[in-house]
Amino acid sequence: MSQEIDVFDPEIHLVKPDSISNFTFGDLGLSNGSNDDVVAGSHPFPFLTKDGVLAYRRSILRPEVLDNCARWLGNTTAMLRNSASKSQFVTDLWTSPATTEIVRKALNMPVDIIMPMEIGHTNIQVMGDDCSLDRLTAEPWLESMSLTDEELSYDPLSAGSVIPWHFDSYPYVCIIMLSDTTSMTGGHTYLRTGDGSPHKVEGPAMGTAVVLQGGQVEHLASRAFGSAERITTISSYKVANVGTWDNSLISNVRVYDRLPDLYRQWSLYRLKKMREEIEAVEEKLRSTSDPSDPFLHDEVKSLCSQLSQYSTRTIRQMIPITMRDEAVSKFSARTVTDAKDVWKNIREQPGIHRRVVDATDRTAKVMPEMKDYLLDWYQTKARLAVGADGGHDSLRVPLEASAEYYFPDELVRQGLNELLLLWLDKMDVL
């Protein structure tokens, strides 16, 4: 494999699309809570030139990147995490003002990269007798593979998808296709619409990109067949405006990342956001210091409320490393990822109410490390009792005051999959 080190040049590696076709929440029959005309995602649009694709592939398929960043999710599927730390090209491409301008245009929203670890997350699917990543080259594989009867009858919405139905950890993503898709069957992204039916996003071609508000639109990545490889690379974004609080989680990445690195970057990005919001309100207060000016009570109240919820979410997401390791070791990374489905099945069992209530009553004694999460549960129940929503942290799990709200529901709501499985197991609910 070539060891050539490419230097990113937007004039050589980027395509500047004249127009980008996108769709809104309203188009999908969804509501985002404020304006249904907000962009939910886009159709594929040209993003990288052929030189850009080759340079990107060279930059991530080097031994240094593969050895340090590859994580296997199965026999044929791998991902690269934190690859930007080992590739200057990946870093420079995603942080370039020219790239940011394209992503902002596609989303019709001022956005910025979340944090360095979320630059260039790459998913790799390799088919054939030898699934070693070392076989991949800068030139995309063009060979086609005949489909088996099983592959011909494959249901793209089945449990065998590359990534099952999920919400992203972060509000927005930009996804680039790095493989030749001429002979590829499947590999589509499906979105969950307002009536529950799937909406298929047309398949991308090599070098094209799509954007998606993945933190609010549930979606699935189906498995690809007929091509020897499928490589996509992704970066995550948040709204850049002061006054707009992002709803990020790290539940999707916590299961396989090196947690000291993830927690350090997560803390830095969250603290920076809180500092920006504090400084913005401080400036407003200073500008209204005349005795005749009204005190900005609503602004200060809103800031304090948001800071409380945002800071609590920040620390709750950083579960003890030992508990993450215990959960992954005991249940597997895929089971941890699917923990909410495990609880959903248990929740529907006859007689589950008394078992869960009794287990919750014993939790503080049996698992004292769960006390903070029990307090969160009590607070959410209180909000529901008075007709309030679940607060800033109530994002992807609808809360219904008419339904019983169990302690495991709180763990699902916060994306604490590892803690959910450990609690179900240790409290004899599993």
CATH H-tier superfamily of the largest domain? q2cbj1_9rhob like domain
Overall outline: globular
Helical content band: 25-40%
Could you name the ranges where pLDDT drops below 50 across 5 or more consecutive residues?
none
pLDDT averaged over residues: 89
Our count of domains comes out at: 3
Strand content: 15-25%
Radius of gyration: 23 Å
Count of helices?
A: 16
Distance between the termini: 48 Å
What class do helices, strands and sheet pairing give?
A: alpha+beta
CATH class of the largest domain: Mainly Beta
CATH architecture descriptor name of the largest domain: Sandwich
Could you describe the largest sheet, including whether it forms a barrel? 8 strands, antiparallel
Q: Could you tell me the number of beta strands?
A: 16
CATH topology description of the largest domain: Jelly Rolls
How would you characterize this protein structure?
By secondary structure, the protein is of the alpha+beta class. It folds into three domains: 10-241, q2cbj1_9rhob like domain (Jelly Rolls), CATH 2.60.120; 261-317; 321-426, no CATH class. It is built from 16 helices and 16 strands. Strands 3, 4, 5, 6, 7, 9, 13 and 16 form an eight-stranded antiparallel beta sheet that branches. Strands 8-14-11-12 form a four-stranded antiparallel beta sheet, with no helix packed on it. A two-stranded antiparallel ribbon has the order 1-2. A hairpin with a 4-residue loop joins strand 4 and strand 5 (77-80). The longest helix is centred in the middle third of the chain and has 29 residues, at 259-287. The chain is globular, with a radius of gyration of 23 Å. The mean pLDDT is 89.
